[in-house]
């Protein structure tokens, strides 16, 4: 039988080879100086380096062979766990004795290997076409594995964990602020955007003007919009009694919240219009024939059938807001961006990662959850239509 080579597997294998050849860890005398790159074989004991090499190679081979797709996910998972444990062991192995100022960080080889193996795992999941519930279980298993690694102390000698240890209380405060900004602006946009979308769908003369206006807001860069809002909100805080007491100020969370709310309106309104437009005409006529009022048709027929499209908008908005909330730190809005900009100012890469990595993980988890919810809702909706 002829062995077939997978095209994506070739790219993954090349990335794995590049990751193995690149530095696996970086050793720095302190948190801000330039570091020394250390290869995989020098960063770990021989047995650990050999195990990572073997598992990464086997994972790359499983990606190359089209006839062995069932092995891709378990091999990718084992190799990812191996490099995660390996970088923690590198922190212990490379740290100079008695030097608490030294910093050990993942280098390019670690990140390239992680990228290649994550692509292999995602490709394996996509090929198996799992049900939404299974995808959610994969997400829970991934989060649980990461928590076990963090709580086990394996990474305690890495620089990013030392940055976290020095800011543990502040980290969770800023994480809470970040989530409040992202989720609060999403909730406000949903409450406002759904009625506006219904009105636009039922009033074609207003639809074009409304969507064009919201499109115009989307074209304004986030930094510029934050700056534009500082003046009006500052005036309101100074001249409207009680405004400052409820948190409305020229800088801080208020302009960030308003900006995220404005950015969120277009996806919610546009997808509400699109979802309602997609409701079959025959379904509406049948509901009308049954004597349903306009409000009954909206809440019992139109919105339930449009819900999958609306949930897609919620996913887009939440992922967008989680990312944009990072920029809010520039105007005193807090959030995980605080660590990103502090790290940039101090040339401390690991402090940047302390803010950036949780942001990426939150966005990824949100996308997976709402994709699954949207698909489950669509399945029920299709069953109802049938």
UniProtKB/TrEMBL annotation:
Q: Where is the ABC transmembrane type-1 domain?
A: 175-370
- Protein species of origin: Pseudorhizobium banfieldiae
Record's protein name: Putative osmoprotectant uptake system permease protein yehY
| Superkingdom of origin | Bacteria
Q: What is its subcellular localisation?
A: Cell membrane
Q: Which GO terms describe its biological process?
A: glycine betaine transport; transmembrane transport
Cellular component annotations (GO), alphabetically ordered: plasma membrane
Alphabetically sorted, this entry's keywords are: Membrane, Transmembrane, Transmembrane helix, Transport
């Amino acid at each position: 039988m002829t062995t077939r080579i997978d095209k994506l597997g070739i790219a993954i294998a090349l990335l794995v080879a590049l990751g193995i050849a690149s530095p696996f860890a970086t050793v720095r005398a302190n948190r801000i100086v330039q570091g020394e790159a250390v290869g995989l074989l020098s960063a770990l004991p021989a047995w650990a380096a050999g195990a990572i090499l073997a598992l990464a190679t086997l994972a790359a081979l499983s990606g190359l062979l089209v006839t062995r797709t069932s092995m891709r996910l378990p091999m990718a998972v084992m190799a990812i766990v191996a490099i995660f444990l390996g970088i923690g062991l590198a922190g212990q192995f490379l740290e100079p004795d008695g030097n608490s100022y030294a910093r050990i960080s993942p280098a390019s080889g670690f990140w390239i290997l992680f990228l290649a193996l994550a692509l292999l795992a995602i490709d394996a999941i996509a090929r198996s076409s799992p049900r939404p519930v299974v995808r959610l279980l994969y997400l829970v298993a991934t989060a649980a594995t990461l928590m076990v690694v963090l709580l086990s102390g394996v990474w305690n000698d890495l620089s990013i964990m030392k940055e976290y240890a020095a800011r543990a209380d502040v980290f969770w405060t800023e994480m809470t602020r970040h989530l409040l900004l992202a989720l609060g602006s999403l909730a406000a946009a949903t409450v406002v955007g759904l009625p506006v979308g219904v009105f636009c769908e039922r009033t074609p003369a207003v639809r074009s003007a409304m969507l064009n206006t919201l499109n115009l807001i989307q074209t304004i860069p986030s930094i510029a919009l934050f700056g534009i809002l500082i003046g009006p909100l500052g005036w309101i805080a100074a001249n409207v009694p009680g405004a400052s007491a409820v948190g409305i100020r020229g800088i801080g969370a208020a302009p960030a919240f308003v900006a995220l709310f404005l950015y969120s309106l277009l996806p919610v309104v546009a997808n509400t219009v699109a979802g309602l437009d997609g409701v079959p005409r025959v379904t509406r006529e049948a509901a009308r024939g049954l004597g349903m009022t306009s409000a009954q048709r909206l809440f019992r027929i139109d919105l339930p059938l449009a819900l999958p499209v609306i949930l897609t908008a919620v996913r887009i908005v939440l992922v967008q807001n989680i990312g944009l909330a990072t920029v809010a730190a520039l105007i005193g809005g807090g959030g995980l961006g605080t660590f990103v900009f502090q790290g940039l100012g101090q040339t401390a890469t690991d402090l940047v990662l302390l803010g950036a990595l949780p942001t990426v993980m939150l966005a990824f988890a949100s996308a997976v959850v709402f994709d699954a919810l949207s698909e489950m809702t669509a399945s029920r909706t299709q069953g109802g239509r049938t």
